[in-house]
Prior knowledge:
Layout: H1 11-22, H2 32-39, H3 44-67, H4 70-90, H5 95-122
Amino acid sequence: xxxxxxxxxxxxxxxxxxxxAHHPVSIADKGFTQATLTRIPHESGQxxxxxxxSLCWLAGIVWLLVxxxxxxxxxxxxxxxxSVVRQFCMLSHNYDTLLLLWAGGVTIACVLAYNIVLTEExx
Length: 123
């Protein structure tokens, strides 16, 4: 954090600053900092996070399929799919809505690409 020189210090802060200016404190490190920094896992945490997320999604899908009657899923999913397709086909006569859908898709694709590039730069 940068210290702002324009701030007015209280007398207590000035007293503390002057004390440490006249009495510098040095603590013997004995290589502790270097040993600690070499043991910090940098990329393994990301890999574990991705594996954990995948396992959670898989467990959720399995739980959903086991807890819900499969016959209900077989009936509901095609109904939802046909309803969405029918609604989308009805939008073909309204060009403003299609333009907004296209713009939304392009926006989502751009944000996804930006996030991928940003993630690659961090690694």
